[in-house]
Backbone:
């Protein structure tokens, strides 16, 4: 199973004990996956259609706990190319529907029924705990998260921009930097920073998934740190080898075309030591001299030899 599947499975099992939080979470699910239809007889029906079994179970749990409603479920015909089954939860009893609509502020004081895809009424989201519950319901309904072993990406796909804007506003309350991109007539709210995704899981109270993601982040950071160190050391070794090779070429040119007798004694001494110890570092070369010379002194002498070689190559 995917990491996203595991997160949703964990979130489905977590339900707040507070009724106002239960309403906020149910409001999110209805807001993103609900539909209001009228039968030919004029009966109003609320349908919540989903392929996700965790959304289905959470809807039943919230309806039962919050409104004492036992909703009906039916399985729709699923195209052969799809492996998952599409299920629909239906609520038709008018009294119960009005109770739900009033609780999620879809029905105002004047009896006007607002659109499902409009902004969620801010009164539902006044408290921090309700904001958390709403984000939990939103992720269950329209969220997904990539395998953290491959990369960090969490997204929630909204059908309208007004929904995406409100989601970003709620996420920003918790310090998350949600961004919106339009994709195939949908508005995708996404997080790409591993730290922000960890925070999102913490806000939704998916603590098991959070710990799994943190462990993967630590392992990945350790690997990256080791790789950076190895690459740095490899680059330094290559640089040292190339420098030593150039120094030896210059010294051999001076020996064969100028003669060691024509250069200063201190330069001749370092030239002979470098030829004798071609793989030694500058610091090691300095210790072979009599008296010993520091790294900067050795580097100065070798640079002088390089200048002599370059002048005589002209």
Residues:
């Amino acid at each position: 199973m995917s990491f996203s599947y595991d997160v949703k499975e964990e979130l489905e099992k977590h339900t707040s004990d507070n009724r106002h939080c239960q309403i906020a979470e149910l409001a999110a699910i209805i807001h993103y996956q609900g539909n209001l239809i009228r039968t030919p007889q004029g009966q109003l029906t609320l349908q919540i259609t989903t392929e996700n079994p965790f959304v289905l179970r959470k809807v039943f749990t919230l309806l039962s706990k919050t409104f004492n409603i036992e909703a009906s479920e039916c399985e729709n015909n699923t195209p052969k190319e799809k492996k998952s089954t599409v299920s629909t939860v239906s609520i038709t009893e008018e009294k119960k529907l009005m109770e739900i609509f009033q609780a999620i502020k879809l029905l105002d004081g004047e009896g006007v029924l607002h659109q499902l895809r409009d902004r969620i009424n801010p009164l539902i989201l006044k408290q921090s705990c309700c904001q958390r519950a709403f984000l939990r319901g939103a992720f269950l309904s329209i969220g997904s998260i990539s395998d953290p072993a491959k990369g960090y990406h969490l997204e929630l796909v909204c059908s309208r921009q007004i929904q995406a804007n409100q989601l970003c506003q709620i996420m920003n309350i918790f310090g998350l930097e949600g961004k919106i991109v339009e994709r195939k007539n949908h508005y995708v709210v996404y997080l790409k920073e591993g730290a922000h995704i960890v925070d999102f899981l913490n806000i939704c109270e998916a603590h098991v998934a959070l710990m799994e993601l943190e462990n993967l982040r630590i392992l990945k950071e350790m690997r990256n740190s080791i790789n950076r160190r190895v690459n740095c050391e490899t680059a330094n070794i290559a640089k040292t080898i190339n420098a030593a090779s150039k120094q030896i070429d210059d010294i051999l040119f001076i020996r064969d075309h100028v003669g060691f007798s024509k250069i200063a004694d201190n330069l001749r001494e370092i030239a002979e030591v470098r030829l004798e110890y071609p793989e030694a570092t500058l610091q090691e070369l300095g210790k072979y001299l009599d008296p010993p010379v520091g790294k900067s002194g050795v580097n100065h002498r070798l640079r002088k030899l390089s200048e002599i070689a370059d002048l005589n190559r002209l």
In short: DSSP finds eleven helices and eight strands in the chain. Residues 224-313 form one domain.
